[in-house]
Every structure is written in C-alpha cells, then in structure tokens.
Amino acid sequence: MNIRPYRPADDKQWVYTKALSYLFSPFFDDRESSKPALETDIYEERIELVAEVGGQVIGLLDIDIYNQEYSRSYTYAPADKVAYFTNLAVHPDFQGQGIAQALYEQAYAQLVEKGVEKLAIFTRDGNAANHLYQKWGGKLVCQDWLVVGVPKDTPAFRFGVDFNKGRLALTDMQGSAISHYLREGIYIVSDEADLDNFDIEQVYQEFTYVVDIGIHP
Predict the structure, then answer these.
(1) b/e per residue, 175-186, with b = 16+ CB within 10 A?
(2) Is the dihedral of CA 48, 49, 55, 56 positive or negative?
(3) Domain check: are 54 and 148 in the same one?
(4) Which domain holds residue 182?
(5) Does residue 202 surpass a pLDDT of 90?
(6) Would the pLDDT of 75 be above 60?
(7) 103 located within any domain
C-alpha cells in the first residue's frame, strides 16, 4: 500500500471510493459527483491524501485548515489555527486493515508541522468510527440528532454549543431555547427528549469530537 498526496487524475476513483464506503454507513446521504474544491473564503489550505494498491485508490482523507479569522471564532474549539476533518473513506473490500490509521498518521504529522492546534471531527452513529476518533484523542464536546420527519413548527434560531451538557444550544432570536432547526432538508435536534415532537421516518445521532493536536499521538 502506498499513501501519497491526492492528484486531480484521482478524481473518479476518489468519488467511487467515497461512495462505496459511505453507501451502507450512517453517511449514506453524503454523495458527490466530483471532489469539492477548497472553500477559500474560510479555509487557507487542505491536507489531501489517498491510499492506493496497484494503482487503485482504496482510501482517502481530507482535512481543511481554517484561516486565522475563522479559527479564532470557531464555535466548537476556537484557537489560532483550527482544522476540520472533511473526508475519510476506505473502500469496503479493504476496511479493517489499518488504512484509516495509516492515512491519519501522515495527516497528523502535517497538522503538527503546520501549527494546527485543534481538529474538529463530525460523525454519526457507528461504533467503529467513534472508537477510532476516540483512539485518536478526540474529546466528545457535543451531540445532536438528525431527523427526517415533520415537526410541529420551524422557528428562526441562533446556533451555539452548551459545553457543560455536551450538546448544541439552540435559541430563537429573542434568546429563548428552541429544540431544533432545519439543515439541508434534515432537522437538527439538540435534546433527545425533543424527538417526541416529530413524526419520525429516520433518525441518526451525530457526534462532534475535538482533537488537541500535539498532545495525542
């Protein structure tokens, strides 16, 4: 197995690998027809790696590094330099072979070299992914639920994090607590008890981890 930087010629294999990896995972709805470009208004650079065997891309990892202005105001872990774990996928035929770990080790070395202080990771249900991020030193700072269903109402909201309770803190425009908001056709619910307010078709739990770069191996 060879781990190397992503090249534009990898685009089709990158898309296939991610699609197959996510197909039967809690991220089944994360679909792309090409590798997204870096959003240069908030990010200053990207770490992008692939793992290949015999010329076939079998794994991928992307970490986007926020610019200083955005890093310092980042909701989950403000610091001078914050990174966001954008993509991690391993082809189903090659899972369980330490490929994700190998990709992360190379990326981590680059994060240290670039002076990144915090790495934010968002994931969903699934023991394998959550165990991996905890192994990497990820501290659970927040959790919420993604609901496909119909709520009784949809209030305007403000977004924050209640670190004491480890969950999202949602309020209306006057500062009163609200239970959910709509994001890309899916309702985000901050408190499990508020799931009772929905006629639910599907629900997924979402977790947010923060890794302190330079503290954990």
Answers:
(1) eeebbbbeeeeb
(2) negative
(3) no
(4) 142-207
(5) no
(6) yes
(7) yes
